[in-house]
Design goal:
- The structure is a single chain.
- This protein folds into 4 domains: 4-62, Arc Repressor Mutant, subunit A (Orthogonal Bundle), CATH 1.10.10.10; 75-124, no CATH class; 138-218; 230-315, 2-Layer Sandwich (Alpha-Beta Plaits).
- It has helices at residues 4-15, 23-30, 34-46, 75-88, 96-110, 113-124, 138-150, 222-233, 247-253, 278-286, 298-320; strands at residues 21-22, 51-54, 59-62, 154-159, 165-177, 182-188, 193-198, 202-204, 237-243, 259-265, 268-275, 292-296.
- The strands form 3 sheets. Strands 7-6-5-4-8 form a 5-stranded antiparallel β-sheet. Strands 10-11-9-12 form a 4-stranded antiparallel β-sheet, sandwiched between helices.
- It has 11 helices and 12 strands.
- The longest helix is centred in the C-terminal third of the chain and has 23 residues, at 298-320.
- By secondary structure, it is α+β, with helices and mostly antiparallel strands.
Length: 329
């Protein structure tokens, strides 16, 4: 059986998990009886930690309070947090690099040597390539996230890809992060339809608007919905191409913002992508090095036939051209 002080720390660690714990579950985890659990819960409350009792099943959960409880992490959790902080330091949010590195330094100071060694080993053999492209203002990200959570209308100035600026009024639903960019999926009240916005192009207007009842999401799979919206639907030509490689192989080469990969069987998959240029699609897919077949649109199929004929003609002309003879010595 754990000593009282160690048991309290273990209890606090369990309560930090975002779920409700019954007294019986806590007693089993701590190897004590339910009475001891109740006494320990009261001791945590006396120390200033807001442990709430939930109605019905006599469960417990740790609420928000004035005291910051000690952060109790096991080895794997500590490594995961350290990797996340180091990744954030080279991420897509403006000004977060310094804060992430400061937090990482504080974390490493209190880590056991065995965990610190694992993190330092990983860092010593890792080279991070800085993220290219525009970054997001953390205040904007927080404002958008707050409106999503509170179900409050959000008005903002939005810079389109063609450089024009317009005012949008939305019912924000969710933020989606692709690894390179942040997007907002929301209901556009003027266009009366779902829209996807790049957060780095958003400038929120304050205060936020009135609350609204949440709508049913445009798709259960918001990641797939976003990928389709930014890689296919927004373009003049929408292509469907069969790739004769497994979906996992194709996904390693194709970014989610470029195309949506859909498995067909173990040896083939479909690529849904789009562009305003047929040449761009043709060259992009040809450079993969995969065998492929263009299913649609008809314009792309005809364009590929014409392009193939021109390339074949160019290579034949080269092959039949007379070569310069090397003079006899």
């Amino acid at each position: 059986m754990l000593e009282t002080s160690a048991r309290l720390l273990r209890l606090l660690s369990l309560l930090q998990t975002p779920r409700d714990w019954t007294g019986a579950e806590l007693a089993q985890r701590l190897d004590v009886d339910i009475r001891t659990v109740r006494r320990d819960i009261q001791k945590l409350r006396d120390l200033g930690y807001p442990v709430h009792a939930t109605a019905g099943a006599a469960g417990y959960r740790l609420g928000a309070g004035t005291k910051l409880p000690p952060l109790l992490l096991d080895d794997e959790e500590a490594v995961a947090v350290a990797i996340g902080l180091r990744t954030a330091a080279s991420g897509t949010v403006t000004g977060i690099a310094e804060s992430s590195l400061r937090a990482l330094a504080k974390l490493e100071q209190v880590l056991p040597s065995r965990v610190r060694h694992r993190i330092n080993l990983l860092h010593s053999v890792t080279v991070t390539v800085p993220t290219a492209g525009p970054s997001v203002d953390p205040d904007v990200l927080t404002a958008v996230a707050g409106a999503c959570r509170a179900h409050e209308r959000l008005r903002f100035d939005y810079d389109s890809h063609d450089g024009t600026t317009s005012v949008r009024d939305t019912e924000p639903h969710r933020l989606v992060h692709t690894g390179r960019r942040w997007y907002l999926v929301g209901w556009d009240t003027d266009r009366r339809d779902w829209r996807t916005y790049r957060v780095d192009r958003i400038r929120p207007r304050v205060p936020t608007g009135p609350r609204f009842p949440p709508r049913e999401a445009p798709d259960v799979d918001l990641a797939g919905y976003l990928t389709h919206g930014v890689s296919t639907a927004a373009y003049r030509y929408q292509a469907r191409i069969t790739l004769y490689v497994p979906a996992e192989t194709a996904a390693e080469r194709i970014a989610p913002t470029v195309g949506l990969v859909e498995a067909v069987d173990r040896n083939s998959c479909l690529l849904h992508t789009g562009s305003n240029s047929l040449d761009e699609i043709a060259v992009y897919v040809a450079l993969f090095g995969f065998r492929f077949r263009v299913d649609e649109p008809p314009e792309l199929i005809a364009h590929l036939r014409d392009l193939t004929a021109r390339l074949a003609e160019a290579s034949q002309e080269h092959a039949s051209a007379p070569r310069n003879k090397v003079p006899d010595r």
